[in-house]
Structures are given as structure tokens and as C-alpha cells.
Specification:
Elements (H helix, E strand, L loop, with lengths): L14 E3 L1 E6 L8 E6 L4 E6 H5 L21 E7 L4 E6 L4 E6 L6 E4 L6 E7 L4 E6 L4 E6 L6 E5 L6 E7 L4 E6 L12 E6 L3
Antiparallel strand pairs: 1-2, 3-4, 5-6, 6-7, 7-8, 9-10, 10-11, 11-12, 13-14, 14-15
Length: 199
């Protein structure tokens, strides 16, 4: 009886299908997926939601739901355009906001100048406006993803450490968290705030 000398494994974003010694990247785009960043590994990966229900602690996680985005220094925020199947993400050590097709494609940098530590991003799919929090500059800004030159600072006062952000296009609001540094603001309280989409 022969003893196996090794175990084949597909890389992230690839999986065995049919023929056991070959890896494929034919992604099932009809299944819901969970997309998340691996900060220490510098990548963004995805796994099928159905796989999470069958996951046990001793199992290896199959992140073959999408081609991984690799080579990042510190992936900090993710937003998805579900209509166009585009993934937006920030890299707070490269000081960029970029995008790529969810399942594959080339990475396109949207913003690479005058950014600090972008901790949160939120996309208005209808207008193409991407709202972001920049913790290093203590601002909330917006950029149009199709016309990145159309970028502006919406809020730059009474912020300490702006982090998470969401957009509600139908109501015309953005909401964000501010993890307040008591040395900067007088009241020293963390908060959740809102503003109209134009600041």
C-alpha cells in the first residue's frame, strides 16, 4: 500500500474541480460571498457564504470565491458596487483608494495624492460618489469614482479620529463614527454623527 508523499492544495482564489491535480479559477458569480481583508497578509479575499455555515474550527478556509487582491500593505476599508460588480478598497500604508472587478481584473488606483490613513469608505452606487474618512488628516471627503479629479473635503472641523462611514443615498445622508481623542476635542466623547451628502 502506497503512502502519499504530499498533499496538493490550490492557492487562494483557485479550487480543485473535476480533475484532482489541477486548480481552476472559474468563480461562481451567482453565489453570495463574504469579502474581507487580511491585514497582516496584505490581501483581500472572498469565501462563499454557504461555506461559512459548514466551517469547523479544524477546517481550512477555502477563499476561492474570488481572485484575491494581493500585495497590499494594510487593507483597511472595503466597499462594493453590487450593480457593476466592482470592489473598492483602501490601503492605509500605501495611502491609496483603488478598485478592481470583484472576481478578477486589473487594479485601478482612484486616489493616490493627499491621503492619510483612510479607515472607512462607503459608495453611493447611483451617483458614483465614494465617501471616505481620513483619520490622519481628520477629514471626511468624497471622490467621484469615474471622475477622480472631482474630489473634495466635506467635513474638516470637530473631528478627531473619523473611522467607519456609511451612506444612505435615498435619505441623502452619510453617517460616520469618530473615535475621539480627548486631547483634541473639548468634550472628549466618541460619537456617531451624520451630515447631508454635500457636507
Amino acid at each position: 500500500m502506497g503512502i502519499p508523499k504530499g498533499l496538493c492544495r490550490c492557492g487562494d482564489g483557485y479550487f480543485f474541480k473535476g480533475y484532482p491535480n489541477k486548480c481552476f479559477d472559474n468563480y461562481d458569480t451567482t453565489q453570495p460571498i463574504l469579502i474581507y481583508g487580511r491585514t497582516k497578509l496584505g490581501e483581500i479575499v472572498g469565501l462563499h457564504i454557504n461555506d461559512t455555515f459548514q466551517f469547523h474550527e479544524e477546517d481550512e478556509i477555502n477563499t476561492g470565491a474570488m481572485k484575491p487582491i494581493t500585495g497590499l500593505k494594510k487593507a483597511t476599508a472595503i466597499a462594493v458596487d453590487s450593480m457593476r460588480k466592482i470592489l473598492y478598497f483602501s490601503d492605509s500604508k500605501n495611502y491609496t483608494i483603488s478598485r478592481r472587478g470583484i472576481f478578477d481584473g486589473e487594479i485601478q488606483t482612484i486616489v493616490e495624492n493627499d491621503l492619510g490613513n483612510v479607515e472607512g469608505i462607503a459608495l453611493d452606487e447611483f451617483s458614483g460618489n465614494l465617501y471616505y474618512t481620513d483619520q490622519a488628516h481628520s477629514i471626511i471627503g468624497v471622490v467621484n469614482v469615474e471622475k477622480p479629479e472631482n474630489r473634495k473635503i466635506l467635513i474638516s472641523t470637530n473631528l478627531s479620529n473619523p473611522r467607519g462611514i456609511v451612506v444612505h443615498p435615498e435619505k441623502g445622508y452619510i453617517f460616520w463614527t469618530d473615535w475621539t481623542d480627548s486631547n483634541i476635542l473639548e468634550n472628549g466623547k466618541s460619537k456617531i454623527e451624520r451630515s447631508k451628502l454635500d457636507g
